[in-house]
Amino acid sequence: MIWLIAELIAIMLLGMTLIGSSADLYPAKVPQVLPYVSIRSSNMQLLISMELNIPSDGWAKRPYIAVWIEDGNGMAVRTLALWYSNPRWLPELKAWYRTNSRYLKNDKSPFPSVTGATRPPGRYTFKWDGKDNNERSLVPGKYVVCIETAREHNMFQAKGTYTIIREKISCGENSEKIDLPGNAEIKTVTLTYTCPHETH
Total structural domains in the chain? Predict the structure, then answer.
């Protein structure tokens, strides 16, 4: 009788080992992580369109111009245009020079590709792809578009003109368009942000 009871117990233990727990039969599901579309997408696009005024004084020299992007903390992250004719007068672009002059002394300056001579009156458009001066992708958020101009004095003017435009724009999941009033040097400015999932 004792050996029969022992055999029954052994069979029961073997059955439990083969069946296992419900967790083994029905493993937990791993949650699916969905991709997050952000400014890091190469499709991000911010267009900055501006029109330079025709000077009222025919003898006026063309203005020096800097166009750049700042982050929400006021740090310059990308220069899109730097137009000038004599580096001696670059400090007249006060705001741009204050935050970017250190790069001018660097052999690996990121500005050669956006540097050029001063331009005549007309319409110009710049494109920002959401990257900094070192081609690193930035995070979504609020950024500031800066357009600064400085014109040298001439024989009819003891002092040249100086203007600066700063406008915040949100670069995230919603497209946005902003029309800005002009000033002495710039007739109009339009900012057009297209979020990544709307570009092709």
Answer: 1
